[in-house]
Amino acid sequence: MSRRGRAATEASEAAAAERPRVRLELPASHPHTGRPVDGVALLTLDRPEVLNALDSETMRQLVETLERLDVDDATRCTVLTGAGDKAFAAGADIREMADATPVSLTIANSFARWERIRRIRKPIVAAVRGYALGGGCELAMACDTIVAAEDAVFGQPEIRIGVIPGAGGTQRLTRALGKAKAMELILTGRNLPAREAEAHGLVAKTVAREETLAAALELAGTIASMPPLAVMAAKEAVNRAYDLPLEAGLEFERRNFFLLFASEDQKEGMAAFVAKRAPEWKGR
Ligand code: HXC
Question: Does the beta carbon of 141 lie inside 6 Å of ligand 1?
Fold first, then answer.
């Protein structure tokens, strides 16, 4: 390659390295109408050249942005998707991971970022087109609900590269699909097509590929139009259904139900119903 050609390649590599790996649009604009979707942030994993593989810089940008949005009054719900037409995310970045050791993984402590996603209080809707594999499937499952394109495929193929899921796959897939199906998928690395994922309850709905983002944004827009305190309380309570025995979960739900009667939005919601008018939420 000529010196000029090499310089151009280096410049484009440097530009790619500096380009944000997670794009934020707030408020998101509806892909068909171009109108803003009130209260909804759109986050796009943006490394299409490697099928949005989740390297540590991408995860750092993703988690920091989610935490920022979680305390931002203008954001009530987030949609997370992948750039390009092939993938939501094809997993953790295998090139970055290939030379890791137990010591380097322990010192880097980058898996702590997944715990931080679990602590996000506002809902996150995953809009999945194409591959959601390995860490990509785990990321979709770490969101609160999933809207999938007809061509979406989910899976935990880690067994094929000598490891197992490491960011929740063995736990969340098993809770979502049941033991037999989760075992089959995790022990063979087989991909699960969107329709099958929907039939087993992993996915909320499956839509035509070109409708995926619109459907996810519309769902997020509806969530964003609900009273924010009740939305956060509902998310937290549903998540407890995974963690707690039934009795403790019911107790948690009841306490949060009672607590919401201290909010202005509860008074407003019920008064508006009685007066047959639309409620105006304050988030207080
Ligand atoms: C790094 C990846 C990648 C990944 C794809 N690419 N997946 N790079 N990490 N996970 C890169 C390829 O190397 C290639 O780069 C480019 O993206 C396009 O991919 P192709 O393989 O050429 O595309 P295709 O033939 O269409 O095959 C698609 C695919 C395949 C079936 C999804 O890419 C694949 O099997 N990917 C790996 C899936 C996987 O094993 N995921 C689990 C990872 S482990 P070049 O430079 O060659 O063009 C994991 C553990 C999670 O996620 C632990 C917790 C975080």
Answer: no
Output the residue whose Cα is nearest ligand 1's atom 8. 50
166 CA to centre of own chain = 17
pLDDT higher than threshold 90 for residue 43: yes
pTM of the predicted model, to two decimals? 0.94
Task: Please state the rounded mean pLDDT for residues 112-134.
Answer: 97
Task: Please state the atom number of ligand 1 nearest to the C-alpha of residue 51.
Answer: 17
User: Any idea of the CA torsion for 14, 15, 16, 20, to the nearest 10 degrees?
Assistant: 120
User: SS3 helix, strand, coil % of the chain, rounded to 5?
Assistant: 55, 15, 30
Chain mean position to CA 200: 19
- 12 or 62, which is more confident: 62
Domain assignments of the chain as residue spans, ordered by start: 3-224, 228-275
Residue 5: pLDDT over 60: no
Average pLDDT over residues 83-92: 97
Separation CA 227–CA 220 (nearest Å): 13
Q: What is the rounded distance in angstroms from the CA atom of residue 69 to the CA atom of residue 122?
A: 9
Residue 45 alpha carbon to ligand 1 centre in Å: 15
What mean pLDDT is reported for the chain?
A: 94
Q: Does domain 228-275 have CATH number 2.40.50.140?
A: no
- Please name which of 24, 28, 83, 71 lies closest in space to residue 216, comparing C-alpha atoms: 28
Assign domain 3-224 to its CATH architecture: Alpha-Beta Complex (3.90)
Cite the beta strand spans of 174-267 per DSSP E.
192-193, 205-207
50 lines ligand 1 (CB under 6 A): yes
Binned at pLDDT 50, 70 and 90, residue 242 comes out as confident
